[in-house]
Design goal:
Layout (H helix, E strand, L loop, with lengths): L1 H19 L10 H12 L13 H67 L1 E3 L21 E8 L5 H6 L12 E9 L6 E5 L5 E4 L2 E2 L6 E2 L2 E4 L9 H12 L5 E5 L1 H11 L2 E5 L3 E2 L13 E2 L2 E5 L1 H9 L7 H22 L5 H14 E4 L5 H12 L6 E5 L2 E4 L2 E7 L2 H10 L10 H20 L13 E5 L11 H11 L6 E6 L6 E4 L5 H11 L6 E3 L6 E5 L27 E2 L16
Parallel strand pairs: 1-14, 2-9, 4-15, 18-19, 18-22, 20-21
Antiparallel strand pairs: 2-3, 3-4, 5-8, 6-7, 9-14, 10-13, 11-12, 15-23, 16-17, 20-22
Helix pairs in contact: 3-9, 6-7, 6-9
Amino acid sequence: MGTSGVRRDEARERGSHAGKLGWDDSLYAGDEAGGEGAGNERSGKAGKPARSSTSATDAANAANASNVTGAKAAAGAEGTESAKARRPLARRILRWATAVLSLLILGTAGAGYLYYRHLNGNIRSGERSNSSSGLDKPAANSAGQRPLNILLLGSDSRNKPENVELGGSKSSVGSPPLADVQMLVHVSADRKNASVVSIPRDTRVDIPECEDTETGKVHPATNTIINETLARGGPGCTLATWEKLTGVYIDHWMTIDFSGVVKMADAIGGVGVCVKDNVWDRPLPGVPGGSGLKLTAGTHQVQGQQALQWLRTRHAFESDLGRAKAQHMYLNAMIRELKSQNVFTDTPRLTGLAEAATKSLEVSEEIGTVKKLFDLAMQLKSVPTNRLTMTTMPTVVDPQDANHLVADGDAADLWKMVRDDVAFDSNGDTAEEKAAAAAAAKRKQAEESTVKEATTPPAETGVLVRNGTGGAQTPVKGRAADVTQALVAKGYTLARADAQLTPEEKTTVSYPSADLEGNAQTVAKALGIPTSSVKRSTDVSGVTVVVGADWRDGSSFPKESEPAVGGVPDTADALNGSEKEACMDVYAPYRF
């Protein structure tokens, strides 16, 4: 009896503890009930004695019959009791399994949430743009979709010990970083094709006034090589410079440094690259520096530091243009590799990539969460490799400095393709894409023909005209005066030329307040300038025309021809994502 009491106390304690944990108390019930049932069976009363009989044989037979019947009855009773006992036990086991499974799910979900927070904590972000370009997002297509533009930047910062170890001079530690790699990724509105345009780091461009959001320092507008933009206010200034140069609205930016490239390359697990000759990018007499890349002729899988060396190699690939091409080969191969790995269904690989990416990238704040970056990756993932085209902005040697480059005339055609969302390749349904391009052109024409009514007649409308034909090229003398005379001939007798030179790639018409929007659009129409070039700006006090580098002669703005699908200029050095046999030439002094 004492032992039975202890068991009951233990059972009550276990049941009470289970209740505190939120489990079902009945998981621990029934032990005592089973014990009591067994006790009753064992202590059951004996049957009545058999009646007396005149025949001993009859008495024996009767006794045997009674025993058999009792045995059967007892067996039946035991079977019934056993079945009854099994049913609650099965239910208890099921409840226990459910409880354990629930705990496992909750534990996994909790761990997943903590890891999600961990990844979010890895991400660094900054302001999208710290200078006003006046550009609006492109219009949506008939399905309500908009193209997506992302600026990718490679920083040469040596401000982390691991970056110093991976390359560059220690004397650069503490200095503002430079953006040595700059690429614009354009994904079509229907997400069926994508294009990438690089600008070599030594290309001279107009950089707008930028404010450093960390220090508050305002950097004045200047004209210098584009890799300095990162040091003049961060990635937001680089983005603003690209928008000013191209007329393309850019949605987001992403920046990665040396150590980030190594982490990402290791997480991917190796990318195939090819050189036509043995290559060793090393210092030579009179030519210091070098990435250290050393490969024999043929195809190699590079990852980690060797991948970084490939992406940084310039001398052995002859120039910045050669380096851009090598970077394009690497990116194409990397995308093919990721697609072949099915990383989105391979949890360990996906986890490794997520860890590397969130630790390696700094992004603009509007995509500064894991979810937003994942959603972005899903949009990029849908583009087939044969619909991805890598290019470099056409350039020529800078007449002011032979070590620098400036945009070539073909660059304007390339940027128009991006602005108009025209595919760089012709591997899709060209009939469908041509129809879509025609529909977009028709919508644009309709928009251009819609002009708000001017608040004053031409003779009473003041217009200031500035010469912006300089910048990458030598300015055309007297250009502001020529356009002013064209306006006067159209009735704008108050128009005057400004002596100030304002270098701009694109011709613009600006106005300071909403009441002058109609006036500005009417002026633009008089000169043949598209209304898409009419912008509101706080930098002007009245209607102001800046004659850009795209209008160097004539009294009427030149009409732009509509770009053709796959019509990338030859000078853009296009490379399609499906070209697996692409291989780099090696500059002779760097062969071994």
